[in-house]
Specification:
- The complex is a heterodimer of chains A (313) and B (251).
- Chain A is built from 7 helices and 17 strands.
- Chain A has 313 residues and is α/β, with parallel strands linked by helices.
- Chain B has 6 helices and 13 strands.
- Classes of the chains: A alpha/beta (313), B alpha/beta (251).
- β12 of chain A pairs antiparallel with β9 of chain B.
């Protein structure tokens, strides 16, 4: 076993995702404690230039046409091969769409415990945000080695930017017989509304109960000259189009005023809106995580307070 | 296609969550459980695929509180078979659950295994990906669309910002469903009751998992948070006035 900390770098459409820098910053502290080095793992085709601002001791990159675009099967095989050869002490993976396809399989393939939804990591314990962010759970690791999949927004991205990493070319395993083939990227359809461009967003969550109640919150958005956005369950239920979704699998927004109506504040949602200038949360559950991020909170029933507010504006 | 859908019950987050006296788990005695919402989407996608392309849908679950009702509800919605895996405590790690499910599902020669992409209790990783590795099958997570073309499937995987990657894959494959193409169908209680009488639930013994998560919970606690929100109180009218003031001052 080495004392090195591996960070699985994530990139899409030629751009490194912020989660990579967040993990690199965290890895630096872990490597200081373990006495090892920070090693970034970068997979792709013609990809090494992306590592120019990585705060790492080493970037282990694999350049292969089969890795040009993320492919769960090809990426898993390659990362499993690297982790088996180099036996790092800790592997940090994003708890992201790509990372979800990597972490759990790596845990089995390399016989390393995995702790998911991680918001804090030390060399012997990992804290996860479970139950939609309503509970923190600290896990102790049996043994020394582990994988943590990191919730985006847990650490500073700036701490993971730097220079001077050594680049090292690594060979890809045999990727000739893949059962999954990448075909194309599909850009989101332009919606009627670009929620990232609005200064006021009224965002609706599960608390709205059913589709027929959407006009109640739409009226508030209209009154404020803002747009109506939502949390994921509303979009999964097809009550609003995908272009209105705020959060991990939706859009990141930074309006002047963000009014969260009937949204409990799961980590995936918080990731998309926590940087808004002023956050107002309306939710009857006084213990909802959204109130930890809001500047102002209201526990009145949304069906009473939203129409009353529309009257006052 | 032979489509298998593992389902599980999770605590209903609408209820207040309390920590038990060990300080390491939820107080489960009074917890209300419901089917993992993503599993509902996985079942819906499976039923849509069956309606379009034929085949059979089997819902499978580890035995736990109220799981019979969840399985009969799956049958009422259109699942052809329901299977309960018995002899294992429902509250096990996902590594163990995945291994035991893989033992049972491996026997069924599946073409597609559709799981919910995640649940609120995935401390040791998402079930579908673990299941795929135990089945030695490839997997794609965060799936928002599936279509069948002969022996292969076209799969849409979602990234942030609504960007979607399209893959072509051979079967068998495990897909972690984020959202079905349609809203999961509703089934009235009367229909579930009828399914209860007309469906033969198959029971299979869990056998040994022989794996573990490799970690143990040392502490469960409510996130401290900033608790930063200034709470507005008073009558509805007072609150609406205060909110209007705040909003006007910010825009």
């Amino acid at each position: 076993m080495s004392n090195n900390i591996f960070v699985i770098a994530e990139h899409i459409q030629g751009k490194v995702e912020d989660i990579t820098y967040e993990m690199l910053g965290k890895a630096k502290g872990l490597a200081e404690s373990s006495g090892g080095e920070v090693v970034a793992i970068l997979l792709g085709s013609g990809v090494k230039d992306l590592a120019g601002d990585f705060a790492a001791n080493k970037v282990l990159y694999v350049d292969d046409a089969q890795l040009a675009e993320f492919n769960p099967e090809a990426y898993c095989k390659t990362i499993e091969s690297l982790v088996s050869q180099h036996t790092p002490r800790v592997v940090l993976v994003g708890n992201t769409s790509q990372g979800m396809d990597i972490a759990a399989g790596l845990s089995i393939a390399c016989d390393m415990p995995l702790v998911a939804y991680a918001s804090e990591v030390t060399l012997n314990s990992v804290t996860s945000q479970l139950y939609g962010g309503k509970m923190s759970v600290e896990s102790n690791i049996d043994g020394d080695r582990f994988i943590a999949s990191i919730l985006a927004g847990s650490f500073s991205a700036d701490a993971g930017k730097g220079s001077g990493a050594t680049l090292e070319d690594a060979a890809a395993p045999d990727l000739s017989d893949l059962k999954i083939k990448f075909t194309k990227l599909i850009e989101p359809e332009g919606g009627d509304v670009d929620i990232t461009q609005h200064e006021v967003l009224v965002s609706v969550g599960r608390g709205i109960q059913n589709e027929d109640n959407i006009p109640i919150v739409q009226a508030l958005a209209d009154k404020l000259g803002g747009a109506l956005s939502s949390s994921r369950p509303i979009v999964d239920s097809k009550w609003l189009p995908k272009t209105r979704q705020v959060g991990k699998s939706g859009l990141k927004v930074k309006p002047k005023v963000y009014i969260a109506v009937g949204i409990s504040g799961a980590p995936e949602h918080i990731e998309g809106m926590k940087d808004a200038d002023c956050i107002i949360a309306i939710n009857t559950d006084a213990k909802a995580p959204i109130f930890d991020y809001a500047h102002f909170g209201v526990t009145e029933d949304l069906f009473d307070v939203v129409p009353a507010l529309v009257e006052k504006l | 296609m032979n489509i298998i859908v593992p389902i599980k019950q999770v605590p209903d987050l609408v209820e207040e969550l309390e920590i038990d006296s060990s300080g390491k788990d939820l107080d489960r005695e009074w917890l209300k459980f419901k089917v993992n919402e993503f599993d509902d989407h996985a079942l819906e996608e499976a039923l849509l695929l069956k309606e379009e392309s034929g085949g059979t849908v089997t819902a499978i679950a580890l035995d736990s509180n109220d799981i019979d009702k969840a399985l009969y509800a799956a049958a009422a919605k259109g699942a052809d078979k329901v299977v309960k895996v018995t002899g294992l405590d429902g509250n096990v790690s996902n590594h163990e659950a995945a291994k035991v499910l893989a033992n049972a599902i491996g026997e069924m020669s599946p073409d597609l295994v559709l799981t919910g992409v995640q649940s609120v209790e995935d401390r040791d990783g998402q079930l579908g990906v673990l299941l795929a590795h135990y089945l030695k099958a490839p997997h794609i997570s965060v799936v928002t669309g599936v279509s069948i073309n002969g022996d292969s499937v076209t799969v849409n995987k979602e990234y942030g910002g609504g960007l979607v990657a399209e893959f072509e894959a051979s079967t068998p494959i495990v897909l972690g469903i984020q959202a079905a193409r349609e809203t999961p169908r509703y089934v009235p209680v009367a229909k579930v009751r009828r399914a209860m009488r007309s469906t033969d639930m198959v029971e299979v013994a869990a056998g040994e998992a022989g794996v573990s998560a490799g970690t143990s919970i040392s502490r469960m606690f409510k996130p401290e948070g900033g608790g930063s929100a200034e709470m507005l109180t008073g009558s509805t009218d007072d609150i609406a006035n205060k909110l209007a003031e705040i909003i006007k001052s910010k825009i």
